[in-house]
Each structure stands twice: as structure tokens, then as C-alpha cells.
Amino acid sequence: MQIHIIIDSSSSAGPLLHAQVSGRVTEALAEVADKITHAEVHLSDDESATAGSPLCCLIEARLRGHQPMLVAHQAANVDSAVTGALGNLLQVMECAFARSRNQLNRYYQPPQRDPQLQPSAP
After folding, report:
1. CATH number of the domain residue 9 falls in
2. Which one, of 19, 73, 15, 79, lies nearest residue 46 by Cα?
3. Of 40, 102, 106, 110, which is most buried, counting CB atoms within 10 Å of its CB?
4. Reduced to 3 states, what is the DSSP secondary structure of residue 102?
5. Burial category of 41 from C-beta neighbours within 10 Å (exposed 0-12, middle 13-18, buried 19 and up)
């Protein structure tokens, strides 16, 4: 899984923030890392937001066999914004995987057993 961190130029972000966000994303997506080919994390100041939620974290994930998924979360600090967006992404992924399982189950019908062939109790 490749992770790209993109931080708005108006932020005063250094390599420490990149490493922190990358580590957080890697840790949160560890269980589904084999299903994700690429993830982009965009952090930006949202001027249109209310005074209590100035930061926006947008995550785009590309999954094998699925359309790209895009989630966002606004929060007062970077940690909360990233955590919220990761939580949203995991929920969206869970729904997508459940839909895929349901579609497979719809097309697969297990063979029916003949009740006359059941072993009789002694």
C-alpha cells in the first residue's frame, strides 16, 4: 500500500507531521492493507468552516476490485481530523466489502441435500 500525504501550502507543516500522519494511516489500515493499492491524505485549512473546525482531512483510497473511495472529516486539530477521516473510511470500506459478499452469495446457491439421503438416527 502506497501512502501519499499532501498538506496545504498555507500550513506550517514539516517532516514530523508527514511522518505522524503516515504512521497513523498505516496503523489504522493495517488489517486491510492487502486490499488497498494507494491512499492519499489531504490536509488543509478550511476557511469556510466554523471557528471550531478549521482543519479538513480528506482521504482517497483505491481498493482492488472497487471504485476509489473518498471520505472527509473536519476537526479542530490534525489528530482529530485524521482519526475521524480514517474512521469514516473504515466504515465505507466495511459497507463496500459487505455488498461484495452479498452479491457473491446471491449468485452462489449451495447444493440442496435430499432429505431422503439423510442418515437415520439409530
Report:
1. 3.30.160.100
2. 73
3. 40
4. helix
5. buried
Cβ-based neighbours of 18, under 8 Å, separated by 6 or more: 5, 7
The yes-or-no verdict on residue 120 having pLDDT over 80 is: no
pLDDT of amino acid 87: 93
- C-alpha distances out from residue 28 to 53, 82, 85, 90, Å: 23, 10, 11, 9
Q: Is residue 8 part of a domain?
A: yes
pLDDT recorded at residue 88: 94
Amino acid at the residue 9:
S
Q: Is residue 122 part of a domain?
A: no
Identify the bridge partners of residue 39 per DSSP, sorted by sequence position. Answer: 3, 61
